[in-house]
Structure formats: structure tokens, C-alpha cells
From TrEMBL:
SMART domains: Cupin_1. This is Germin-like protein. One of its GO terms (molecular function) is manganese ion binding. Transmembrane segments: none annotated. It comes from Picea abies. Its main location: secreted. It comes from the Eukaryota. It is found in: Secreted, Extracellular space, Apoplast. Mn(2+) binds at residues 61, 63, 68, 107. Residues 26-161 form the Cupin type-1 domain. GO terms for cellular component: apoplast. Oxalate binds at residues 58, 63, 68. PANTHER family: GERMIN-LIKE PROTEIN SUBFAMILY 3 MEMBER 3.
Length: 169
């Protein structure tokens, strides 16, 4: 039988800047039950999000199992979420400002400042899940039928196929 230790309840690393050199210019460092076994059944987790300047983006996504509360540690972020009746709630946040993203709603953050930005968020699940909207639709494997997406987005099927190639690359 394995014994639970203090290490099962801690995580080191939210002080370390994440690599923002990827195409979107953001990085999420997770501190959930996968990194902290002691969170199992406790219904809470955290992330650190780093945003490159200029315009580092945490793209539209949803957390199917969690509400998120975000605090800006450094920088200036444009944030928002879209309700189920397609209403956008958005704000520009500065250091120390807090914003809430309700469970399951599509939301985003983008660095609109001149310098790199950092935020810390708490989520109301030990494993909130993340579903990126564009990646889900254009990066699915096997791919979603291009004619279906073309009709849904009112765009040409060749553009859908190009997007699918980019997301699957």
C-alpha cells in the first residue's frame, strides 16, 4: 500500500514563465489533479497563463467542468466570454484586476499591452478540461466533413480544408 505524502499536495512551478514562442503567443501551466494528486475530489485547481507581447492569445475555449476566476499579475489583457445567446461580455484588465468566466462558456484572453503579461486563474474543478473551439472544429481526427464546416461558417470548402491542414500540422 502506498502512503500519501506532503508532496501529493504541492506543486512547484507557477513562478516559472511558460514558453510563449508558439504560434498563438501564449502558454498555460496547469496545476490540477494530474500534477497535484491531493486535489482528487477537492473541486479546485489553478493555472498560470503567460502571454507574449504583442497580442499573445489564449484562444477561444471552454472548460466543460469549471468556472474560472482570473487575476492579472502583470500586463494588460483584453478578456471576454460569450453567453449562450451570443452576447459578448468583455473588459480590458490591468494588474490586480479579476474577471470571471462562467462554467462551459466560450472565453478568451489577449495581451493588448506593450510588454509580456501573466495571469493566474483558479478553476472550480480538480480537472476542468479545456476545449479550444478552432482546434476542436478544424483539428479533429478524423476530420469533420469540410462541406459541413463550410456550410456552418458560410465559407468556401477549400478554406476549411486549408484550415484543417494547418490545425493538423
Amino acid at each position: 500500500a502506498s502512503m500519501v505524502t506532503a508532496e501529493d499536495f504541492m506543486f512547484k512551478g507557477l513562478n516559472i514563465a511558460g514558453d510563449t514562442s508558439k504560434m498563438l503567443g501564449s502558454n498555460v501551466t496547469q496545476a490540477n489533479v494530474m500534477q497535484i494528486p491531493g486535489l482528487n475530489t477537492l473541486g479546485i485547481s489553478m493555472v498560470r497563463i503567460d502571454y507574449a507581447a504583442p497580442l499573445g492569445l489564449n484562444p477561444p475555449h471552454t472548460h466543460p467542468r469549471a468556472t474560472e476566476i482570473l487575476v492579472v499579475i502583470e500586463g494588460t489583457l483584453s478578456v471576454g466570454f460569450i453567453t449562450t445567446d451570443n452576447r459578448l461580455f468583455s473588459k480590458t484588465l490591468e494588474k490586480g484586476d479579476v474577471f470571471v468566466f462562467p462554467k462551459g462558456l466560450v472565453h478568451f484572453q489577449q495581451n493588448v499591452g506593450r510588454y509580456n503579461a501573466v495571469a493566474i486563474a483558479a478553476l472550480s474543478s480538480q480537472l476542468p478540461g479545456t476545449q479550444q473551439v478552432a482546434m476542436s472544429l478544424f483539428g479533429a481526427s478524423p476530420p469533420v466533413d469540410a462541406s459541413l464546416l463550410a456550410k456552418a461558417f458560410k465559407i468556401d470548402a477549400s478554406l476549411v480544408q486549408r484550415l484543417q491542414r494547418e490545425f493538423l500540422a
